[in-house]
Amino acid sequence: MIKYLFRRRSLMTPSYAEMIIIYLVLGLWALVVLFPLYWVVTTSFKLPIDVNTGPFYLPGIDYQPSLHAWHYILVGDLSNDTKRNFMNTLIVAPTSASLALLLGTGAAYGLTRFQYRPRLGAILSFIICLILAIFAITLGAPWQAAVGGALLLFLVLLQTIGKRFKRALANKDIAFWLISQRMLPPVAVVIPIYVLFQRLGLLDTHIALIITYLATNLPIVVWLMRDYFLTIPLELEECAAIDGASRYRTFISIVLPLAGPGLVATFLLVLVFAWNEYLLALFLSGARSQTMPLTVAAQNATRGPQWWYMSVLILIMIVPVIGMAIALERYIARGLLVGAIKG
């Protein structure tokens, strides 16, 4: 029995040789992960000739550090564009992420606490009427008449054809449909989105980017927060209801504080997605509402990529997000386990 216990202890506790191997592997992996960041930092302090003549990695030994790129970006010719585009990113990304978290959290809570049974016939009728209304508007019909006719047709179809399709969808079908919208590549819908905002006169505005990023990141928020709400015991809400708390009071006072780590991790995730988004910003923004990813890409001039300027801009981009991640580390560590443990 004693021999068996010692054998189990030896299996559970790694030896010194195993610990050395583990730390060696982790150190090598950390080196692989952190080396690109180190390369960006060192490149930002290089002169163009040092970047183009060889891979010099040791400041003061392989090359002499210089503030040439930093001066050009923060004080020189590109300073105004950098400040404007950074402010655009600082407005668009947090605003869209906050709205996505606000709307997505409510939708996720509804999908976990209420049962929805939408009829398939009603959904098909709505899609048909929507397509007909859009087609009528493209042919030149007044949008008021097109919408009114589509609404009337929807009511007729709902009372006739819609009743023949008795199959209903469940909450899991709605959640899967939401996340399937995020699987769609943005390049497939960027042209219709561009035409939509062009017709509305919202191109090159913060509103267009905020609405687009909100629609893009909303499915992620709903999917992640839905899994997190499923881990919160329903008995807590039932006890609050017995004490006389309303559904809204229970959601605000009990559910949201318990879901704090999930909210923080989800917010940071969608913030990074909006902060680094390039394709949609390329089509929807112009000189007034350009974001930082476009500024970085613009440093690819006729003489080739300006790595020294790009490195400075990349550091300006990532420092706020890294600082936020460090400040919220204790919440993120718990929130990353969203949906990992149930029951």
Brief synopsis:
This protein has 343 residues and is an all-alpha fold. 74% of the residues lie in helices and 1% in strands.
Q: What structural keywords apply?
A:
two-stranded antiparallel sheet, disordered N terminus, 1% strand, 2 strands, mainly alpha, 343 residues
Describe what this molecule looks like in 3D:
The protein is mainly α and 343 residues long. Among the domains are: 1-39, no CATH class; 45-76, no CATH class; 78-112 and 204-335, MetI-like fold, CATH 1.10.3720. Helix content is 74%, strand content 1%. It has helices spanning 2-12, 16-44, 48-53, 68-74, 79-113, 120-138, 143-159, 161-164, 171-183, 190-200, 206-230, 234-242, 247-258, 260-276, 279-284, 292-297, 307-327, 329-335; strands at residues 300-301, 304-305. A two-stranded antiparallel ribbon has the order 1-2. The longest helix has 35 residues, at 79-113. The chain starts with a helix and ends in an 8-residue tail after the last helix. 24% of the residues are buried.
Radius of gyration: 27 Å
CATH fold label of the domain at 78-112 and 204-335: MetI-like fold
Widest beta sheet: strand line-up:
1-2
Provide the CATH top-level class of the domain at 78-112 and 204-335: Mainly Alpha
Helix content: over 70%
Shape: globular
Number of strands: 2
| Name of the CATH homologous superfamily of the domain at 78-112 and 204-335 | MetI-like
Major sheet attributes: 2 strands, antiparallel
Strand proportion: under 5%
Low confidence ranges: 1-11, 339-343
